[in-house]
Amino acid sequence: MVKTGIETAEVGTQEFFDRARARLRFDIPPGLTDASVVPLTGDHGNDFMLQAIAQEKPIRPAAVLIPVVAREEPTVLLTQRSAHLNEHAGQIAFPGGKIDAADTSPVDAALREAWEEVGLEAGLVEVLGLFDDVATAVTNFVITPVLGLARGEPTFRPDGREIERVIEIPLAHLLRPGAFRVEDWGREGARREVVFVDYGEDVVWGTTGRILRELLDALFPEVARARRAG
User: Fold this and answer.
1) Does residue 8 contact residue 1 with C-beta atoms inside 8 Å?
2) pTM of the model
3) Of 45, 91, 98, 200, which is the most exposed, with the fewest CB atoms less than 10 Å away?
């Protein structure tokens, strides 16, 4: 069971599953097939930059897997990128990457990347649905998050090339009202919100932090209300 930190409410794997299926979808988002569709975030600064970039070059489609590991205390699996990479070295992210021509859907791309990066077998993942697209102003991607429940006590094997290690953050930690913090950053004359969540010495931030916060806010609106009230 996952204690949410709100009164005495607890959330188990089955309730998480039920909430996800009620909120998520399986249809392909229009941003993946129509380059003119730019997902908006509600953050004025970020949206301004996205619209400007979309006028210069098409935004590239990508998919990430958000694996919730069905342990006695459920966890969310993330990866730490290797320190030698040219882009996003050392950053914490979900398994995922660009959607290749051979991928039949965002789900296929997310599951393929998770297998390649950390050895998570697709057969162990119960896909719960697709969350709202997120566009990135820096890397020029539109990302489809795929939520999956990893069952059967999976073991993980970082590939050692792109992925340095695997991190599991307890879902209970992420559901605390004070788990996420926000900073205002400036870039090219525009201000945008950057979302952070700390877990021990690890810091999840940027697009990954934003996806996590928005997904959990959508599934657990009581947590979002408690955070805003605080």
Assistant:
1) no
2) 0.85
3) 200
Q: Residues 67, 120: contact at Cβ < 8 Å?
A: yes
In the three-class reduction of DSSP (H, G, I as helix; E, B as strand; rest coil), residue 168 is classed as strand
Class of domain 2-174: alpha beta
- 101-124: burial string, b at 16+ Cβ within 10 Å, e else: eebebbbbbbbbbbbebbebeeeb
Residue 48, φ and ψ in degrees, nearest 5: -60, -45
- Asked if 65 and 143 touch (Cβ cutoff 8 Å), the reply is no
Q: pLDDT tens across 90-109, in order?
A: 799 999 999 998 999 999 99
- Beta pairing partners, 126: 149
Query: Can you tell me the distance from the alpha carbon of 111 to that of 190, in angstroms, rounded to the nearest whole number?
Result: 35
The DSSP symbol for 25 reads B
The separation between the first and the last C-alpha atoms of the chain, rounded to the nearest angstrom, is 24
Q: DSSP labels for 64-128?
A: EEEEEE-SSS-EEEEEEE-TT-SSSTT-EE-SEEEPPTT-SSHHHHHHHHHHHHH---GGGEEEE
